[in-house]
Specification:
The protein has about 375 residues and is α/β, with parallel strands linked by helices. It is built from 15 helices and ten strands. The longest helix is centred in the middle third of the chain and has 29 residues. It is elongated. It comes from Hallerella succinigenes.
């Protein structure tokens, strides 16, 4: 398991919304340019504001603050600080000040409530993803799979840059804003990802990872919006941070054990539809929120090794066992696990035995479930230790 260390990032929950707002704004700038030519602008993260747009002369075109909150708050102090930052920089004399939020907030002049659509001045992370992907599809004139590939590349571009800035700040012990001001993304980079020629049949591993990661993180944080428990909030935020810290290979392994019914060798739009839908991620949230805290590798060792799994309570455990057993050739990652913990109706001690009850199964030494016992564990039995 490989986790990216040496980062000053305590929690990714705020950076997720900020990154989506920045990406959406950049795409809209590209869309608004006549003649299909990319504007000579640069995206600057975590410096003058949560993000800013600079021109070729390093003058600040706009400054953007982003708030993804559970409750509506009074942001008068934040608005005043934005104005002070603008007034303090000769490069920001003509900068427009925008405020992005997921709630309907009253904004004081000269701050402008960001207009996400013609009718909306507030937007959730999930809605932002949908807006981004609709715009990518429009700009690139592409099919669904190609849109998902391009969107995944854009998410990765922003995430990698945020991580790079924070790693440099952490390693060099420089103020974050000083590092960030020297590190910027040309809008040309975003333009090229959107417009490069590519026709996707099967998505590559990196695209699957990045696309599934952004949807899982945003759904977990979205479900958290309705909770009032500070301890639970901390647990979900720590889970999100560890999800973001996984490298691609480690997160792909996590996805495989999270979705053991899915064949990850068939990397098409159907696979993504199965692993990123809200019901599936809701099942993940149920497991993470109700069971003991996961360790940094997003599993438990107590003393058996256990992993969360995205099982729906509406599906019979016997059917889950059948689908997992038939997907055994793609589940080598489960060799080190004893239990799959999911939001299921009842615990199943042994996937292979359960499958054999309904199917005549000959001994197959290459099948993981004939070599070791792997069971399905309900949330209730995990909590109570009844296994």
């Amino acid at each position: 398991m490989s986790i990216i260390d040496n980062t000053a990032i305590g929690s990714w929950s705020g950076f997720v919304y900020q990154g989506l707002c920045a990406l959406y704004h950049c795409l809209r700038l590209i869309e608004s340019t006549s003649g299909g030519i990319c504007p000579d602008y640069f995206l600057n993260l975590d410096s003058f504001e949560d993000f800013s747009i600079l021109d070729a002369n390093d003058d600040i075109v706009s400054m953007h603050q982003c708030k993804n909150e559970k409750k509506i708050k009074n942001y008068t102090d934040e608005f005043n600080k934005m104005v002070d930052k603008k007034n303090a920089s000769p490069k920001a004399i003509h900068a427009i000040l925008y405020f992005h939020t997921n709630k309907n907030v009253n904004v004081n002049s000269p701050i402008i409530a960001y207009q996400f659509t013609s009718t909306a001045t507030f937007c959730t992370s999930k809605d932002l993803i949908q807006l981004i992907e609709a715009l990518v599809k429009k700009l690139a004139c592409c099919d669904e799979a190609t849109c998902q590939k391009k969107s995944a590349s854009l998410y990765k571009l922003i995430d990698d840059r945020v991580l790079q800035i924070h790693q440099m700040s952490f390693g060099l012990d420089y103020p974050l804003r000083d590092v960030a001001r020297r590190d910027r993304i040309p809008l040309q980079d975003i333009y090229e990802i959107v417009h490069r020629e590519e026709k996707i049949i099967l998505l590559d591993k990196s695209s699957i990872v990045q696309y599934a990661r952004i949807w899982l993180i945003n759904d977990l944080l979205e479900f958290l919006q309705f909770e009032e428990d500070d301890i639970l909030e901390k647990k979900i935020n720590e889970t999100v941070t560890n999800i973001q810290r996984f490298d691609d290979d480690s997160f792909f392994d996590f996805l495989t054990r999270l979705h053991p019914r899915q064949n990850f060798n068939q990397r098409d739009v159907r696979l993504l539809a199965n692993i990123i839908n809200e019901d599936t991620n809701s099942s993940v949230y149920e497991v993470v929120s109700k069971t003991p805290k996961l360790n940094d590798e997003l599993n438990w060792i107590s003393p058996k090794k256990e992993t969360p799994a995205a099982f729906s309570r509406s599906m019979r455990p016997e059917l889950i066992c059948s689908k997992i057993y038939e997907n055994a050739p793609n589940l080598n990652v489960l060799y080190e696990y004893d239990w799959l913990v999911g939001d299921i109706q009842k615990t199943v001690q042994d996937v292979c035995n359960q499958y054999s009850i309904f199917n005549y199964v000959q001994k197959n030494e290459s099948n993981i479930f004939h070599q070791k016992k792997v069971g399905l564990l309900s949330i209730e039995d995990k909590i109570n230790g009844n296994y």
